[in-house]
Amino acid sequence: MPINGGVGEGIHTPRKLDDFKKIVEMHIRITLAVMAKRKYAHRYHYLDLTAGNGYVLHPPRPGCALVFLEAMERLGANKLLYRADFIDRNETNLSWCPYVLT
Question: Whose CB among 5, 21, 68, 91 lies 3.0–4.6 Å from 53's, allowing a Cys bridge?
């Protein structure tokens, strides 16, 4: 299993990312539907405790943190106030944040 920024990647990583993308998109759609029924402001808070460095190398593609951000931008960013916090025990893994989010 190759190690990328202290995070292992295996043969199931592409499938995991595909499944995660579908799950997070479904969750955003459900959240939007529920929050649309409320009369007061809500904030959606996404917390990723194992954010990694933002990318998977084999094959090259966005990791879970970026999959979430891309899905939120596509589906809910203009309809839902949200906050996303990315945490990783390896500080250098989060160096992607200022570059990706600007």
Answer: 5
